Amino acid sequence: MNDTKALPELPDRLSGNPRSKFHVEEIFEHHIGIRLNGKEHTNVEEYCISEGWVKIPSPKALDRRGQPLLITLKGTVEAFYC
Fold this sequence. Notes:
Helix content is 0%, strand content 44%. The chain is an all-beta fold.
């Protein structure tokens, strides 16, 4: 009765935007946590571990399509399952 299946390995780069080529739907079936420089962030839109950056949405600024502008933060990135 143990129906636990193995979690997919987290990729080096992942995006929450379904239009991105770095979006992997199977990963988003589970809760993911992101740490940048030891601090956990809950609003990460995209990350890259090898290049050491995350992108978070701007609180107020919007692009011409009405989507939030993304701010890039740099540092040590860790991705993990919660």
